[in-house]
Amino acid sequence: MHPDLERILFDEETLQAKVAEMGATLSRDYAGKTPLLICILKGAALFMSDLVKRIDVPIEMDFMAISSYGQSTKSSGAVRILYDLERPVEGRDVIIVEDIVDTGLTLAYLRDTMIRRQAASVKIVSLFDKPSGRKVDIQPDYFGFTVPDAFIVGYGLDYAERYRNLPYVGILKSDIYATG
Ligand code: XMP
Ligand code: MG
């Protein structure tokens, strides 16, 4: 285990099994359709790349980056598009792929944006759900694991851009971000 972690919550095998299960569910729910999966960079990049390999209906992929915590572990509440989609979502069955839903502010903004752009349908899939952090009443349509009120890193999730490459997910030691 990485020395900056307090403990591991989900090992690689557990993550992969869950992602496979979520891919199977999406394959059933989107049978006969060609959904557009939108990966929210950068946190969801690893989840997205494993998830699409487990979906057996035709899909398309696009990417979007929005402002998030920056170097802090608390959400600022302000959401801003840093990098937008390549193509219009009008008439498409959109699946927003997120790493974690915390306050819900990001998802509420993204969902409204896709509806405003006239997507045919909008669903949210998030690997992690942190219900204790919620500030707006929004739930992912699909999620993998509920996580405790702690800052987690690994498998795409970062603190100050570090730890994204860990193949497992764990709780970061609080002195790492307390001291910067
Ligand atoms: P909101 O609060 O808008 O935020 O639901 C979602 C985004 O916040 C980040 N986030 C985390 N990142 N460990 C992380 O590495 C965490 O425990 C955590 N909680 C929230 C994440 O970028 C997510 O997309
Ligand atoms: Mg993020």
From TrEMBL:
Origin: domain of life: Bacteria
Phosphoribosyltransferase domain residues: 13-159
GO molecular function: glycosyltransferase activity
Keyword terms, alphabetized: Cytoplasm, Glycosyltransferase, Magnesium, Metal-binding, Nucleotide-binding, Purine salvage, Transferase
SUPFAM superfamilies (alphabetical): PRTase-like
UniProt entry tagged with the keyword Cytoplasm: yes
Pathway in which the depicted protein is active: Purine metabolism; IMP biosynthesis via salvage pathway; IMP from hypoxanthine: step 1/1; Purine metabolism; GMP biosynthesis via salvage pathway; GMP from guanine: step 1/1
EC number: 2.4.2.8
Pfam families, per the entry: Pribosyltran
Needed cofactors: Mg(2+)
Reaction(s) this enzyme catalyzes, per UniProt: IMP + diphosphate = hypoxanthine + 5-phospho-alpha-D-ribose 1-diphosphate; GMP + diphosphate = guanine + 5-phospho-alpha-D-ribose 1-diphosphate
Compartment annotation: Cytoplasm
Enzyme class of the recorded protein, top EC level: transferase
Family from the record: Belongs to the purine/pyrimidine phosphoribosyltransferase family.
Role, per record: Purine salvage pathway enzyme that catalyzes the transfer of the ribosyl-5-phosphate group from 5-phospho-alpha-D-ribose 1-diphosphate (PRPP) to the N9 position of the 6-oxopurines hypoxanthine and guanine to form the corresponding ribonucleotides IMP (inosine 5'-monophosphate) and GMP (guanosine 5'-monophosphate), with the release of PPi.
NCBIfam families (alphabetical): HGPRTase
Name recorded for this polypeptide: Hypoxanthine phosphoribosyltransferase
Biological source species: Alicyclobacillus mali
